[in-house]
C-alpha cells in the first residue's frame, strides 16, 4: 500500500514535465530517500503531513535507454523548481537523495525542463476506506439459502390466474419466511375461507331439498309416466307443477352446482400453478416439504399422499359436502363414489406439491362441513334442520343396473319425443306454405262442375 501511494505521487510529478528525447529499451527502478521538504511543504494545504512516513521512502520509476551515453538529470532539478515552503507548515528534513541505483540504467538528458509554478503536482488523496467486516459462516449459509431467483426470472408469475397464484405464493414465501409446505397451507385456507359463503348457500339448498324430497319424487314420477305414454300435455303440466313446488320451498337443483362450478376454476388454477413450479423446478421446493415428502417437485416415494388424498376425497363425497346428497342422485351415486378409485393411478405420478394441496383442500372442506353440522352454527346461519322421513315417504333407491336401465329408457323416450316434435313442426310449416295435398279419391266439387257444363252444352 505504501509503495503504491509513493508511485502515484511521483508519477504525478513526472507527468508535468517535458521530455525532449528518449529511446526506450528497458525500465529500471530508481530509489530516492528523503525527498526535499519543499515538495511536502508546498502542498501542506492538501493535508499530506500524515503521509510523511510514506514519502520518507518513496519509489520513482524512470525510463532509460541502452544506446544513449547521456545521464539522467538529477531529481534535485525537479525539486529545485518547486515552490518555497509555506510558513507554519511542518517540514521534514530530507537529504542524500539516492539516484540511479541500478547499474544497467543508461540515462537521458533534458528529461525535465521545468515544472510550472502554479501547477498542482499532487491531487487530494482520499482517505483509505475501512474494509467491511467479514460475515460469519452462519450468515453466509443463510444468504446462500435465501438468495434464490424470483419466479419472474424463471418464466413464472404471469398475469394468468395460475401466474397470479404463483406470485401470491412467492409473496408469502419470501416476505413471511414461510417454507413451501406452509405457504401451500396458508394459500389453501385463505381461498377456502373466501368461498365459505358459497358453502353456506349450498348447505341451505341441500337442507331444503332433503326436507321437500317426498313431494318432489311424486311429481317426478308423474312426469316419467307421462313421458312413457307420450302425453305432451301431461309432461308440461307436471313440469310446471314441479317448478312451482320448488319455488315455494326455495330449493333448486341448479343451486347445488354453484360451489362445484366456482371451485373448479380455482382448483385448476392452483393445480397449474403448483405443477409449473414443480416441473421447472423451483430449487427451494426441493427442500420445502414436510416429514417424508421433503422434495415437493417429485412424486411421493411411499405413495402415502395419493392414498390420503383419495381417501379424503371419498369421505368428502360421502358427506355430500359441496354437492347434493349422494343418495338422491340415483345410479349416478355409484359413479361419483368410484371417482377416487379412478383417479388414484394418476395421482401417484403427481408431484408431492399437488397431492399435498389436494389433501389440505379436502381436510379443510370437511372441517367446514363438520362445523356446519353443529346446531348452534346452523341456527346462526339460518340453515334448516334435516327432517327424518319415514321409509314409506321416499322411493326406494334402485340398484345400479335398474337405475341405469331406467335412465337409458328415459333418454330414448326423450329423444323420440324430440324427433316427433320436429316432424310435427315440419309438416305444419309445409301445410301452411306448400300446395294442397290430395287426401281423397272423390272430389264432389269437380264432379258437380262437370255435370253442369254438360247440361249447359245440351241446352
Automatic annotation (TrEMBL):
GO molecular function, one term: membrane insertase activity
Cellular component GO terms, alphabetical: mitochondrial inner membrane
Membrane topology: Multi-pass membrane protein
GO terms (BP aspect): protein insertion into mitochondrial inner membrane from matrix
Principal location: membrane
Record has Cell cycle as a keyword: no
Record-annotated membrane-spanning stretches: 180-201, 256-278, 302-319, 331-350
InterPro entries, per database record: YidC/ALB3/OXA1/COX18, YidC/Oxa/ALB_C
Signal peptide: none
Locations listed in the record: Membrane; Mitochondrion inner membrane
NCBIfam families in the record: yidC_oxa1_cterm (TIGR03592)
Family: Belongs to the OXA1/ALB3/YidC family.
Official protein name in the record: Oxa1l protein
Amino acid at each position: 500500500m505504501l509503495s503504491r501511494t509513493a508511485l502515484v505521487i511521483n508519477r504525478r510529478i513526472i507527468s508535468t514535465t517535458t521530455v525532449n528525447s528518449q529511446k526506450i529499451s528497458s525500465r529500471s527502478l530508481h530509489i530516492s530517500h528523503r525527498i526535499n521538504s519543499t515538495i511536502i511543504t508546498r502542498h501542506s494545504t492538501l493535508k499530506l503531513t500524515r503521509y510523511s512516513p510514506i514519502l520518507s521512502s518513496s519509489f520513482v520509476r524512470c525510463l532509460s535507454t541502452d544506446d544513449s551515453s547521456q545521464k539522467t538529470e538529477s531529481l534535485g532539478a525537479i525539486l529545485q523548481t518547486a515552490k518555497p515552503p509555506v510558513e507554519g507548515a511542518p517540514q521534514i528534513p530530507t537529504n542524500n537523495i539516492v539516484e540511479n541505483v541500478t547499474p544497467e540504467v543508461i540515462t537521458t538528458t533534458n528529461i525535465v525542463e521545468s515544472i510550472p509554478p502554479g501547477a498542482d503536482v499532487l491531487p487530494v488523496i482520499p482517505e483509505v476506506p475501512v474494509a467491511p467486516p467479514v460475515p460469519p459462516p452462519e450468515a453466509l449459509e443463510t444468504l446462500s439459502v435465501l438468495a434464490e431467483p424470483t419466479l419472474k426470472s424463471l418464466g413464472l408469475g404471469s398475469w394468468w390466474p395460475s401466474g397470479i397464484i404463483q406470485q401470491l405464493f412467492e409473496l408469502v414465501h419470501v416476505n413471511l419466511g414461510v417454507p413451501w409446505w406452509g405457504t401451500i397451507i396458508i394459500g389453501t385456507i385463505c381461498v377456502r375461507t373466501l368461498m365459505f359463503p358459497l358453502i353456506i348457500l349450498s348447505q341451505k339448498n341441500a337442507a331444503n331439498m332433503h326436507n321437500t324430497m317426498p313431494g318432489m319424487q311424486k311429481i317426478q314420477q308423474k312426469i316419467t309416466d307421462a313421458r312413457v305414454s307420450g302425453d305432451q300435455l301431461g309432461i308440461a303440466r307436471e313440469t310446471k307443477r314441479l317448478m312451482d313446488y320448488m319455488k315455494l320451498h326455495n330449493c333448486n337443483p341448479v343451486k347445488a352446482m354453484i360451489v362445484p362450478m366456482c371451485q373448479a376454476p380455482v382448483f385448476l388454477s392452483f393445480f397449474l400453478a403448483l405443477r409449473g413450479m414443480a416441473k421447472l423446478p423451483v430449487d427451494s421446493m426441493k427442500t420445502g416439504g414436510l416429514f417424508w415428502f421433503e422434495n415437493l417437485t417429485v412424486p411421493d416415494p411411499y405413495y402415502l399422499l395419493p392414498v390420503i388424498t383419495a381417501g379424503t376425497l371419498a369421505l368428502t363425497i360421502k358427506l355430500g359436502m359441496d354437492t347434493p346428497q349422494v343418495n338422491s342422485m340415483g345410479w349416478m351415486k355409484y359413479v361419483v363414489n368410484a371417482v377416487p378409485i379412478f383417479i388414484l393411478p394418476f395421482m401417484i405420478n403427481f408431484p408431492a406439491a399437488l397431492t399435498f394441496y389436494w389433501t389440505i383442500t379436502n381436510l379443510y372442506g370437511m372441517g367446514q362441513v363438520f362445523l356446519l353440522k353443529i346446531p348452534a352454527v346452523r341456527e346462526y346461519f339460518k340453515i334448516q334442520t334435516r327432517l327424518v322421513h319415514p321409509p314409506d315417504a321416499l322411493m326406494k333407491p334402485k340398484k345400479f343396473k335398474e337405475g341405469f336401465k331406467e335412465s337409458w329408457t328415459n333418454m330414448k323416450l326423450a329423444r323420440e319425443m324430440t324427433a316427433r316434435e320436429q316432424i310435427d313442426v315440419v309438416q305444419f310449416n309445409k301445410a301452411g306454405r306448400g300446395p294442397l295435398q290430395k287426401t281423397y279419391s272423390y272430389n264432389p266439387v269437380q264432379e258437380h262442375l262437370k255435370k253442369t257444363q254438360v247440361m249447359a252444352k245440351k241446352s
